[in-house]
Structure prediction request, 400 residues.
Amino acid sequence: MANQLAARLNAVTPSVTLAINARAQELRARGVDVISFGAGEPDFDTPENIREAGRKAIAEGRTRYTPVSGIPELRRAIAERSVATRGAPAKAENVTVTVGAKGALFNFALAALEEGDEVVIPTPCWVSYPEQVRIAGATPVYVESTLEQGWKVSPEALRAALTPRTKAVVLCTPSNPTGAAYTVAELEALADVLRPHDCWILSDEIYAGLVYDGFVQRSIVSVAPDLAPRMVIIDGVSKTYAMTGWRVGWSIAPTHLAKAMDTVQGQGATSTATFSQWGALEALNSPPTELDRMRVAFEARRNRLVAGLRALPGVRCGMPEGAFYAFCDVRAWLGKLTPMDKVLATDADVAAWLLDAAHIAVVPGSAFMAPGHLRLSYAVSLETIDKALERLAGAVSTLV
Ligand SMILES: Cc1ncc(COP(=O)(O)O)c(C=O)c1O
Prediction:
């Protein structure tokens, strides 16, 4: 008995990026200059005023447990900011400060989902949505989108996926892995489909602060406030403020769900770290200067990387509205032969070959339910992007 694992884990897929990361580390240990486009985090340091707030919290002895749902100052600031940016009512009692946005999603899965429930997830999707749904015993139901659709799910496809068992629908905008972000009109059309269907709407807005070309980023709650009683907004400081390691995210949910999520967190984590919460409060109160600097840098990198990828033979790549990922179609490379006489049969083969032949680490699209594609994170410098594009062009020219 002691050796037996929980059956619920049988359905959970180990990360497909692990093999690539392990190989990249192996190469690095041998002194190879591996360029990694794999990271799901900004390469910038956390702005200094936020780091100082964390240090100050520790120096002032703020080192004990906080309330499960977070320090009142932060919960209030999150609620106030949500009202200001989303225009939908939110009070501190709706906010649960969590161990990263991932913790908020996990609280939701355990608080709201059970066996027999279906959760509709547009694809390509971030890896953790389906896995968390499965850990909770529920079933992910995928709705595909394509590059031609700008990687956005159509209202018709969403409608077709809804069943009486649909307990929740996930919306991630801007998206990981595609960077696609829904316009106001697109959100309105999705809200029209969801309005008659009694299910939770999980809106993951963790990349909302990172949009480019003046894109108008709106939350679905601001275009369909009547659906607020069924909405859970997921957000956090990890991506926008370069604070991935601080582990602060949050959910904004109707009071009864917020209470249930507080119960889950109270038994699993107690709360996220105390000094991190004070750092997050400083982040929310910061002037936008540092954020603007990072956003402008990401935009320039996006433009450089996407243009370079599009110039490679056989590659198709959309222009992402936000986040820091380029998602490109490399199906034209499948079936080709490498100089080592290896046929590239899958996107995982392509990723493994790029690592060995060009020393470039990317994430295969199959990790995001989109085989035949690659995700490249542009949380790397322009110089690195240029160097990588040269290497990519060299490697691709050897394929026959
Ligand atoms: C779409 C999406 N949601 C949530 C998260 C989790 O963020 P955090 O680091 O705050 O847990 C990530 C991180 O990769 C993400 O890409």
Remarks:
- Residues 289-310 form the longest helix (22 residues).
- The chain has two domains: 7-45+290-396, 64-285.
- The domain at 64-285 is CATH 3.40.640.10 (Aspartate Aminotransferase; domain 2).
- DSSP finds 13 helices and 13 strands in the chain.
